[in-house]
Amino acid sequence: MQSNIVIIGGTGMVGKTIARIFKSRNPQQQVFIGSRKAGKTEKDLVIDVTDPKTFQTILDHHIDLIILSVNDKEDYILRFAIENNIDYLDITKPTPDLVRAYELAKSQKINSKIVFSSGWMGGIVGGLVNTFSDQIKEVSLFVYYSVKDLAGESSAHFMAENVAKPFSMYKNNKPVSVKHFLNSEVFEYSFGIGKRTAYNFDVPDLYILNQIERVPDVTVKMTYNSKFITWLLGAFQSLRIFNILSLKERKMIFGSSGKGDQSVFDIVITGHKNSKTISLKSAKGQAELTALSAVLHAEEMLKNRLDHRIYFSHQLHHPNKLLDALNAYESITIQTIE
């Protein structure tokens, strides 16, 4: 059955990648691209997330699914999707915005599939965690971030705005206030990266795994491909230099982007009886993996087997089927150690 999909933010780095992967896997579907500026084809729609007057084109083109790949801080698109019973998938929200949007959605009557997919790399961590069969006591996510990788503006802007602000990790089901780039821990990363010093890092999986999946202990730490940059950011935080820098200066620090590199993360899962480490490498980097994750979620939504309600994206999938789908993609390698 043919459906009409619009990717809002579809001219951005991740949006373009979503469109490419989705079209290659689903040629029978109609894909429209939403952007603030007019495009050159009939599939290019003017949709500005800050201007609800531009949303009428979504109804005019009988859109069945909105994929949001641009930050909608006021949740105008979310409200529009709920009011008009349109399926919605959002991959963009940092933790504070995700929590606020989730609370908003819970206060509304839902007659479509509303999916939040803002965890690390398109919200696949929760699905991979759920391949663990024992009762989970602790999840630790270790992110390897390469400054040589292609990076969009949204994550850089989030770091610039929030690097000096505390956020929560979880211990014994209680939030523990921490800051980015503190509380160093040496971790042996997979895929030949080796031992690296990793520091606190805020991603929505902290909230999702504790508050939604009820995992008592959840931590996330990251390291850069450059040991010097990793050390320097930790020193800046320790000396409170981020507190005195302007937002513009902080954006300059976090706004660099390379021409492409691998993306790697390791998930260490601890249960009452055993443990498991799941390691994933995307040879084509963050944008490719995030976009693929969004496509896998969208494909599940289009199967029309799901009830109309609010989901976090990992809840769309049978965990082992998600693992198989990721493994089947040519640029992704997954290793599991039990």
Automatic annotation (TrEMBL):
The UniProt record lists the NAD-dependent epimerase/dehydratase domain at: 5-69
Which InterPro entries is this protein grouped with? Epimerase_deHydtase, NAD(P)-bd_dom_sf
Transmembrane intervals: none
Descriptive protein name? Saccharopine dehydrogenase
Which organism encodes this protein? Chryseobacterium paridis
